[in-house]
Amino acid sequence: MSGVLHVLLHMAEADGPITSEHLAKAMRTNPVVIRRTMAGLREQGLVRSGKGHGGGWTIAKDLATVTLRDVYEALGSPGIFAMGNRTEAPGCLVEEAVNAAMDDSFARAEALLLDRLGEVTLAALSADFHARMARRSSHCDFKDEIHAA
Fold first, then answer.
1. Which of 1, 39, 59, 89 could serve as a FRET partner for 123 with CA atoms 20 to 30 Å apart?
2. Domain boundaries 1-62+140-149, corresponding CATH code
3. How far apart are alpha carbons 126 and 91 in whole angstroms?
4. What does the H/E/C string look like for the chain?
């Protein structure tokens, strides 16, 4: 998720479309990974793509209307927690009690996290980036960074 948000903010700062190859270099991954990920975002209307010379990926919506939860859901709502129950069908009553408590705790924590993701927009992330950039004593040109990748 953080990698996708990183890519989206790079795209938001770009003057035009960015190719999968260019994004892959910036993210140190394979262009195929970028294309697969972006295809899911495109299906949800978050990004668009253009083919041919001058083509590439662009943001399709106003950053203020896209929440982190929108991005999370566009990625297929992957599991949030790596922790889980030791076994889903225990034969032990103690483990059943543990599973019930853990399931409830995970469900509550996930609900809180999803609520928070729904409150944060890409515009808020962009604003935070720009504020950090303004505070940085040595100027780093973000557009040069994405174009240098």
1. 39
2. 1.10.10.10
3. 50
4. CHHHHHHHHHHHHCCCCECHHHHHHHHCCCHHHHHHHHHHHHHCCCEEEECCCCCEEEECCCHHHCEHHHHHHHCCCCCCCCCCCCCCCCCCHHHHHHHHHHHHHHHHHHHHHHHHHCCCEHHHHHHHHHHHHHHCCCCCCHHHHHHHC
Question: Pick from 62, 73, 67, 72: which is nearest to 119 by CA?
Answer: 67
Mean pLDDT by 10 residues, the chain (149 residues): 91 92 89 91 94 88 96 91 76 88 91 96 95 75 51
Q: Are 67 and 120 in contact (CB under 8 A)?
A: yes
How confident is the model at residue 57, as a pLDDT?
Answer: 95
Q: Which residues fall within 8 angstroms of residue 84, CB to CB, at 6 or more apart?
A: 102, 106
- Contact present, 140 and 8 (Cβ < 8 Å): no
Residue with tokens 């729904």: 118
Residues sharing a CB contact under 8 Å with residue 15, sequence separation 6 or more, in sequence order: 143
Q: Where are the domains of the chain?
A: 1-62+140-149, 67-120
